[in-house]
Amino acid sequence: MEPMNCAADVRADGCDIYAPTQFQTFTQNTSAKLAGLKPEQVRVHTTFLGGGFGRRAEQDFISDAVEISKGTGAPVQVTWSQRR
Q: 59-72: per-residue pLDDT in tens?
């Protein structure tokens, strides 16, 4: 299973999310709320999951990327290390 990861580009006119998410609509709504945008201004680009088993339904790794991108005003990629 690949590590949890998300790339986010938050701008005043919209937001692009690149993530291996299992719930695109939930990701869109969460990202819109955090970015201060309307859901239709958020585009979710689903990447290959690499084995989700339910974990990729969570929004924590996506929230991290959105908040950092909004705070820095630049696109970011967040990748969590794997723990075993």
A: 999 999 999 999 99
How far is it, in rounded angstroms, from Cα 34 to Cα 29?
9
Cα separation, 51 vs 11, whole angstroms: 30
Please tell me the pTM assigned to this model.
Answer: 0.91
Q: Are strands 76-79 and 42-46 parallel, antiparallel or unpaired?
A: unpaired
Dump the DSSP string for 8-59.
EEEETTEEEEEE--S-HHHHHHHHHHHHT--GGGEEEEEPP-S--TTGGG--
Could you give the CA distance from residue 28 to residue 71 in angstroms, rounded to a whole number? 18
Burial class (CB in 10 A: 0-12, 13-18, 19+), 36: exposed
The residue written with tokens 């958020």 in the block is 42
Is residue 84 very low, low, confident or very high in pLDDT (cuts 50, 70, 90)?
Answer: very low
